Amino acid sequence: MRRIPRVGGAVVGAVLALSLAGCGGDDGDGSSGTSADGLQGRGPITFVTGKDRSGNLQKQVDGWNAEHPDEKVRIIELPDEPNEQRQQMIQNATTKSDAYTVLNLDVVWTAEFAANRWLTELPEDRVDLSKMLPATIETARYRDRLYAVPSTSDAGMLYYRKDLLDKAGIAEPPKTYRQMWDACEKVKDLDEAKDIDCFFTEVNKSESMTISMVEAIGSAGGAIIGPDGEPAVNTPQAKQGLEFLVKAHADGRMPKSAITLDTEGGRRYFQDGKLVFQRQWPYQYALANQDDGSSEVAGKFAVAPLPGPDGPGVSNLGGHNLAISAFAKNKATGLDFIRYLTGVQAQRDNLLATSKAPTIAALYDDPELVEKLPYLPVLKAAIENATPRPVAVKYGDVTAAIQEAGYSAVTGDAPVDKALADLQGRLETLTARQ
């Protein structure tokens, strides 16, 4: 039994572990329409994605449709929860349905979908990757072949109530957990802050738990999958990371409802003025700054790098890649639409409209954009130093095991040691290669 080591700074141990045994041996020979040679056909297509709450996606699709009346795009919106999005896309693929054309994939799904021959390989000479952040490009490859184009990136940041920290005499955001807890105590001495909670990161039983564990364990110097490709949650670092989540919830530093709040629930909690600190994605920035009365904290918050046990913490590398279903019609139109959505102008417009992280490197250094979105330097650094989730061909099983372990520990159903021991055994089975 052997495992695949870390390559190029990203955890790929589980990526190839079941690449042939689990998916029938994808050699990219063109069968089932997976080869780049299969990019044929023009006409109407669908774009399958999670919910767009900004309205900007429809605006961009309307722009495409106005210029391509014979190749119109119809948006198919899936649920908010990533697990449900993934399941619906998998159901479409396993039935070999042509209902989905372009897929908006979480970056960690790309390898799984490519290995199972659900995606069409993309020709690199027809996609401009030269302007994109290197970390984002790697998420779009499987076995050194391109199966998607990075559309948005993502990394966790610390949102904090700058107005309250200023009033409490705290000049800088915290770099360590201890500094964050101390800042909370000072803030809660203020009359207007007595009833708000200190900190929130997602610990519900969903993909968000996997992300929180990657960040907490990574911030403690550990990893879920080690650099040698071996599961590594039987380590002191992994224990320290999970204990941070457990204690933050048990000690009341996180709201008790944290075990049920999803990403959107956390956003609303922060926007309602109920938190001092929050780990959150950049998309929240624009929404929390709305001056239409929907946010109680507009103009009152700022962002900083995530804290860790002894210094700045580790962010999870998130984002989305655009790919073409292996079973779709009109794949040539699909590729052109992907190039349109991932182009510089479209990404710039999307950044301004939604505050979602672009994959075009130069946009992070654009003075006009930095003036409007001052978190961009923090976000760029977070992306460049981010840690990926374990990327696995059997990703659904891997993330489910991580979620179960983390949730059982945070809710007190299992001691940390037992939760991690059970997780270690499960991951060893899931990532083993005969």
From TrEMBL:
The reply on keyword Ubl conjugation is no
Superkingdom of origin organism: Bacteria
Q: Which UniProt keywords apply?
A: Signal, Transport
What's one Pfam family here? SBP_bac_1
Residue ranges, annotated region (Disordered): 26-52
UniProt-listed SUPFAM superfamilies: Periplasmic binding protein-like II
Q: Which InterPro entries match?
A: Bact_solute-bd_prot1, SBP
Please list which residues make up the signal peptide.
Answer: none
Keyword Signal set for record:
yes
Report the family membership. Answer: Belongs to the bacterial solute-binding protein 1 family.
Listed name of the protein: ABC transporter substrate-binding protein
Which organism is the protein's source? Answer: Actinomadura sediminis
